[in-house]
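Chapter review: from sequence to fold.
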Amino acid sequence: MLLINKTSMNKTTIKSEITKHIRKSMGSSKPRLNSWYVGITNNTKRRKAEHRVNVLGLKFWKTFDAETMENANEVESYFSQNGTINRPSKNGANKFSKFVYVVRKPNSRPSGLNGPFTDENIIDKLFE
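The token string follows.
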């Protein structure tokens, strides 16, 4: 399920919407955030490709327009402090990074050659 919210929202609303999205996706009122990533970007299409959403079968991608980099940074920081698996990026944000995105990371337990494999991703995984 890949969703893009094209309407600008304030940071409080974005935090609330991300929380609702995670709860609904996990089917829990108190989900653990350690399998989720909340980040910011200036280009949602490029960032989605960099995360290899389609190749790795990442689920529950959703983006929000926070209007400014400052707002986006605050939302990202909030979720990082509350348990998401964020880590510093080499490239960092720029002043146009006003989009916040949330994605559930796949199960990281490798099997085989950096599996897990499915019929859809085995060729891509073999030639990474």
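Two observations follow directly from the output. The chain has one domain: 2-126. Residues 2-126 form one domain.
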